[in-house]
Design brief:
Blueprint: E1 3-8, H1 11-18, E2 26-29, H2 36-43, E3 52-55, E4 58-60, E5 71-75, H3 81-87
Parallel strand pairs: 1-5
Antiparallel strand pairs: 1-2, 3-4, 3-5
C-alpha cells in the first residue's frame, strides 16, 4: 500500500477543508495502482477543478500510477500566465 504526501493549492484548499480532508503535507495511504485521476474522486474533486497535477515536483499525466513516497499536488485553473510555462503546464491534453 503506497503512502503519498498530498497538497492542494488555492481555492481547492477551501473545498477540501469543508470536507474535512487534509490538504497540506498530508500523508495519505492509497490502494496499489491508484492514479491522480483516482485520487481526485477520493478527495471529492472533479477534473474540471484541477488543471494540473504535480508528481514529485513535475507536471505529470493524470493516469500516472502513484508510488510509495510520491509527493502529489493538485493545482486549480487560474495560475498566472507567465508562470504556466515556467512550471511546465500549458493546457496540454495529457496533464
Amino acid at each position: 500500500m503506497p503512502t503519498i504526501v498530498f497538497n492542494a493549492f488555492s481555492f481547492l484548499q477551501k473545498k477540501l477543508r469543508k470536507k474535512n480532508i487534509a490538504y497540506s503535507d498530508a500523508s495519505m495511504d492509497l490502494k496499489e495502482g491508484t492514479t491522480p485521476r483516482d485520487l481526485l474522486g477520493q478527495v471529492g474533486l472533479t477534473r474540471e477543478e484541477v488543471e494540473v497535477v504535480f508528481i514529485n515536483g513535475k507536471v505529470g499525466p493524470f493516469d500516472t500510477v502513484l508510488r510509495d513516497n510520491d509527493r502529489v499536488a493538485f493545482v486549480p485553473p487560474g495560475t498566472p500566465g507567465p508562470y504556466r510555462v515556467y512550471l511546465g503546464f500549458k493546457n496540454k491534453d495529457n496533464v
